[in-house]
Amino acid sequence: GAVVDGSILLEGAEIEAGAIVRGSIIGKRARVGQNAIVRGLAVLGAGCVVGEGNVLDQGIRINPGVVLPPRSLRF
């Protein structure tokens, strides 16, 4: 139930049900939670976690190991 389009997913990356990843880079062992949206040239570092319902856009960069709690960021 996830959508991944025009993106690069590195080894061990996980995209959960209902998530949308478009035009972005997802680092090693990073996880995109349910119903989260990652698009617009966003880059997630290794091991970071984007919690459920977050929206990342406009080239945002998330450093390795950062955990974004559910519904905490709309950028």
List the helices and strands and how they pair.
Layout: E1 3-5, E2 8-9, E3 14-15, E4 20-22, E5 25-26, E6 31-32, E7 37-38, E8 43-44, E9 49-50, E10 55-56, E11 61-62, E12 67-68
Parallel strand pairs: 1-4, 2-5, 3-6, 4-7, 5-8, 6-9, 7-10, 8-11, 9-12
Short description:
This protein has 75 residues and is an all-beta fold. 0% of the residues lie in helices and 35% in strands.
Task: Describe the protein's architecture and organization.
- There is one protein chain.
- It contains no helices and twelve strands.
- It is mainly β and 75 residues long.
- The strands form three sheets. The protein has a four-stranded parallel sheet with strand order 1-4-7-10, with no helix packed on it. A four-stranded parallel sheet has the order 2-5-8-11, with no helix packed on it.
- The chain is globular, with a radius of gyration of 10 Å.
- The mean pLDDT is 97.
Q: What is the H-and-E element order? A: EEEEEEEEEEEE
Mean of the pLDDT scores? Answer: 97
What structural category arises from helix and sheet content?
mainly beta
Total E-strand runs: 12
Count of helical stretches: 0
Helix content: under 10%
Strand content: 25-35%
Low-confidence stretches are none
Strand order of the biggest β-sheet: 1-4-7-10
Radius of gyration: 10 Å
Sum up the structure in keywords.
75 residues, mainly beta, 4-stranded parallel sheet, globular
